[in-house]
Amino acid sequence: MAEKLSPSAPLSPVSVASLNPPQATSWERMRGSLLKAKWPILAIIILALITFMALFGPQIAPKDPNRQSLIERLTPPMTENEAGEIDYLIGTDGLGRDLLSRVIYGARVSLMVGFSAMLIGGVLGTSLGIIAGYFGGAVDDVIMRLADIQLAFPFILLTIMVLVVLGAGVLNLVLVLGVGQWVTYARISRAQTLSQKEKEFVEAARSIGARDWEIITRAILPNILAPLIVIGSFNVASVILAEASLSFLGLGVPPTVPTWGGILAESRDQLLGGYWWLAVFPGAAIMLTVLSLNILGDWLRDFLDPRLRNR
């Protein structure tokens, strides 16, 4: 018969370990959450493929995206030549340029503009938001009034006005789109900073003589990054759409640089003639990229929010 343990008998190390199972790390929880969700995995795969195209465009593009051949203009997709080979997988445009190569090169510009503008807006807005929330007073009033003034103007209209003055170009486009995004980050980081600076660990840091810069970078910033990362994923998608819209209007990058929005703009005159592939493929690239970023951002929001993680 098994010997009974008395209530006062100490628990063995095995019993204590069984009462306190090891906690999963953040990477393990993220991996487990991804394995339960199908759409975020698909979004990551699509974004990985598009990023691969952007990074290795010159190596994987079948032809020079700017090489013209008027004899082969408006060639439909999957058209075979006299030797029975397919020269243009998804056809050519009105100047006989390979559409697949132009879409691949367009990914480089769209992703570069999207992520660069997100970083500029994120760093600028987060810095100003933390300063406003931490110091308060007149500093907070000035920064928030500047944010209100910018929000009074429609974003695209303000961007068009600035680009008309500065001129089209990749650098101008990145700067304008990046600076135009700072308000969202500033408002969120300010609200989070107002909440965090009243916490006990911040008061403890002040009591031991920590400087404001140390408190901001070591105590506050790491604890407000989660919502900013989520906003950043959505922000990249909105910037890519804005870049495509501006390129469509002729205010983006120079016409010699292939972009998804520029390819759509060039197809306007041929669409009524039934040349559907000129708009379908660059449009599908924009749609898949933006949709994947939104799905990934939605999953990140649920994963990083403890209230939504186990829904």
Q: In a few lines, what is going on in this structure?
A:
The chain is an all-alpha fold and 311 residues long. The protein has helices at residues 13-19, 26-36, 39-55, 57-60, 99-135, 137-151, 155-166, 170-179, 182-196, 200-207, 212-248, 260-266, 268-271, 277-304, 306-309, and strands at 79-80, 86-88. It has a two-stranded antiparallel ribbon.
Could you name the key traits of this structure?
mainly alpha, MetI-like fold, 2 strands, elongated
Would you write up a description of this structure?
The structure is a single chain. This protein has a domain at 110-311: MetI-like fold. Helices cover 69% and strands 2% of the residues. It has helices at 13-19, 26-36, 39-55, 57-60, 99-135, 137-151, 155-166, 170-179, 182-196, 200-207, 212-248, 260-266, 268-271, 277-304, 306-309, and strands spanning 79-80, 86-88. The chain has a two-stranded antiparallel ribbon. Helix 3 crosses helix 14. The chain is elongated. It starts with 12 loop residues before the first helix and ends with a helix. Mean pLDDT is 84; it is low at 1-6 and 11-21.
Number of helices: 15
Mind describing the biggest β-sheet? Answer: 2 strands, antiparallel
> Which second-level CATH architecture of the domain at 110-311 applies?
Orthogonal Bundle
Percent helix range = 55-70%
- Using the coordinates above, name the CATH class of the domain at 110-311: Mainly Alpha
Percentage of residues in strands: under 5%
